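Let's study a protein:

===
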Amino acid sequence: MTPLEFGLIAAMSTAAGFIGALLGLGGGIIIVPGLTLLFAQDMKTAIAASLVSVIATSSSAATVYVQENLTNIRLGMLLEIATTVGALVGGAVAIYVNNRYLYLLFAAVMLYAAWTMIRHRDTKKKTGDSEESTNNRLNGEYVDPITGHTVAYTVKAVPVGMVGSLGAGIMSGLLGVGGGIVKVPLMNTAMKVPIRAAIATSNFMIGVTAASGALVFWMDGKVDPVVTAPCVIGVLLGARLGTIAAGKLRTRMLKLAFAVFVLITAYQMVIHGLRGL
């Protein structure tokens, strides 16, 4: 790898870490297609590098979100039980799956990401809502950094969240993404967790999820240090910047722009996958 390629991969990963930390996605959705389409890396090598990078994203972003009390640690630890099991299964299966099918599956996941980004509306707990729930230990509150208001919420549909987290883990191990692309909309739409708390909790979880999948790839010799190093360096910087921006920016326009990027990349991945059929 030339110094120029190293720098370009690091720059791409900085953008991935920024968006990943800001939206709770981990950055793998940018790193995997970036490495395969722009730098001609093997799909499994790209997934392995992405998983290691997601660990770095989580480590950098989660510390800030926990300090700001945005992270629902109890909820994150509960959902991570199912997610970790799924990640181990996904990582084991990915080794034996043909690359072209991974391209097509990744494209499908990216289309889902674009759809959720565009249609998302935050959920708010109504004043006076005193619903008693067996999940009240999972409920939380935080101070919105934009409005300064205290936001309290009740966590619902925990069984649905567990099943969805299992699927997110499988997808993480298969595709090298942190699973946040499923967990953020899952927590926000099904479990009624506000978007800021969902993003922060996702960042808390994705590192453990990615570590489970990365372990399988490492044992199979798919982790290439030369490719992984610039990815990790970039996402560490990007994730730190993303957490700073998250407290100052409204994410609606960024989500729409990201959705357009996702649609374009998904199209490229479909074409790449269909060439092998």
In short: Residues 3-274 form one domain. The beta strands are 140-143, 150-153. DSSP finds ten helices and two strands in the chain.
